[in-house]
Design a protein that fits this description.
The protein contains nine helices and eight strands. With 214 residues, the protein is of the alpha/beta class. It is globular, with a radius of gyration of 16 Å. It binds adenosine monophosphate.
Length: 214
């Protein structure tokens, strides 16, 4: 099962992607997480990516595509994967399709977690990320047991630079300009499925499972 998660930043696609990966025992591949790990480790890729991420801009396609094409070719991805945060542009989607076509493969589902802009800013300002493991929470919708402490690893929680209100506005604009056209792209390929992302997290997940299990 090869799945792409679509949706505005803050729509909850990361949370859903992790749950799908767990339920179906397939890897969760988040390009945002890969970049953040590179930033943390001080790699060249991390340094390049950070300058774009801090402004709410997309990292250039050429820094992302090979990384994902290599990742999905690894052994643990043989039976499927959930891509979270990739593709984010039409050229990225075309590059992925071309790479998969070469090995007679294709994406099975593109799931759009649909949330209107008006909800997004409110959600993002309440989002908290763990400096240790990268886990994400929300102070209202998905709080940790102890305030500002990660449930999974005990790490400290912070508001990511790219979740700050001024950056979020930029990210939303970038989403509408560059990522939203993918909805059309995957609709034309007849693999787009939409879920209402304003619903409770568990209900969103149940609706995704229904889509994957028809
Ligand atoms: P995310 O955690 O998916 O919201 O990603 C955080 C940031 O990483 C984005 O705002 C972009 O700057 C960068 N990024 C992640 N995935 C991609 C991608 N597929 N293409 C370009 N930039 C990306």
């Amino acid at each position: 099962m090869k799945i792409i998660m679509l949706g505005a930043p803050g729509a909850g696609k990361g949370t859903q992607a992790k749950r799908i990966a767990e339920k179906y025992n397939i890897p969760h591949i988040s390009t945002g997480d890969i970049f953040r790990a590179n930033i943390k480790n001080g790699t060249e890729l991390g340094k390049k990516a950070k300058t774009y991420m801090d402004q709410g801009l997309l990292v250039p396609d050429e820094l992302v595509v090979d990384l994902v094409v290599d990742r999905v070719a690894q052994d643990d991805a043989k039976n499927g994967y959930v891509l979270d945060g990739f593709p984010r542009t039409i050229p990225q989607a075309e590059a992925l399709d071309a790479a998969l076509e070469k090995i007679n493969d294709k994406v099975d589902y593109a799931i759009d977690v649909d949330v209107p802009d008006s909800n997004i800013i409110d959600r993002m300002s309440g989002r908290r990320a763990c400096v240790g493991c990268g886990g994400t929470y929300h102070i209202v919708y998905n709080p940790t047991k102890a305030e500002d402490v990660c449930d999974a690893c005990g790490g400290q929680l912070i508001l990511r630079d790219d979740d700050k209100p001024e950056t979020v506005e930029n990210r939303l604009k970038v989403y509408h300009d560059q990522t939203q056209p993918l909805i059309d792209y995957y609709t034309k390929k007849s693999i787009l499925k939409s879920v209402d992302g304003t619903k409770d997290m568990n209900e969103v997940f149940e609706n995704i499972v229904k889509i994957l299990e028809v």
